[in-house]
Design brief:
The chain is mainly alpha-helical. The protein has two domains: about 1-10 and about 85-155, 3-Layer(aba) Sandwich (Rossmann fold), CATH 3.40.50; about 15-80, no CATH class. It is built from nine helices and three strands. The protein has helices at about 15-20, 25-30, 35-50, 55-65, 65-80, 85-90, 110-115, 135-140, 140-155; strands at about 1-5, 95-100, 125-130. It has a three-stranded parallel beta sheet, covered by helices on one side.
């Protein structure tokens, strides 16, 4: 299992939600149903390459996304629907790689590093220096290199 850009929170734990995410006006857009072009550009730009405008095609695709998907996802997340992510990761024997950008703008990496893992690859969260929420976008060679190393380390 490979995780990128998400904190393992306990189901319906507002303490975990508040500790695992950086709460700011950009993060708040994740649960907002309707976005204007400026909001779509701000969120996608921050997600892909902070301090750089998102490509036009990304903003257009973001605006085409049905905003109800965001509100449903965010609402289910806060309501504690689905599995308890923190418990699942703490108790799994499935090899788990966590690969994040060290400069993550939405997610608190300190929270992720401190989480309990049942079988964390290399015994630590992999943080890629100088990268944000989408390290696979910002530095695909570095991200894919770690991904390949993870696959190579798995038993046949």
């Amino acid at each position: 299992m490979v995780l990128t850009g998400t904190p393992p929170i306990h189901r319906a734990s507002m303490d975990d939600i508040n500790a695992g995410f950086y709460m700011n006006e950009t993060t708040a857009l994740a649960g907002q149903e309707v976005w204007n072009a400026e909001e779509a550009g701000k969120f996608s730009g921050t997600a892909l390459q902070p301090d750089t405008p998102a490509p036009d095609w990304v903003v257009k695709a973001t605006l085409r996304t049905d905003g109800r998907a965001r509100t449903m996802m965010f609402g289910a997340f806060v309501a504690g629907q689905g599995g308890d992510q923190a418990e699942i990761l703490a108790n799994t024997n499935v090899p788990t790689a966590v690969i994040n950008g060290a400069d993550e703008p939405f997610i608190n990496n300190d929270f992720i590093v401190a989480a309990a893992y049942g079988n964390l690859w290399r015994g630590q969260v992999q943080l890629l220096d100088g990268l944000g929420h989408a390290p696979f976008w910002q530095a695909p060679d570095a991200y894919n290199g770690l991904l390949q190393s993870f696959v190579d380390d798995m038993p046949a």
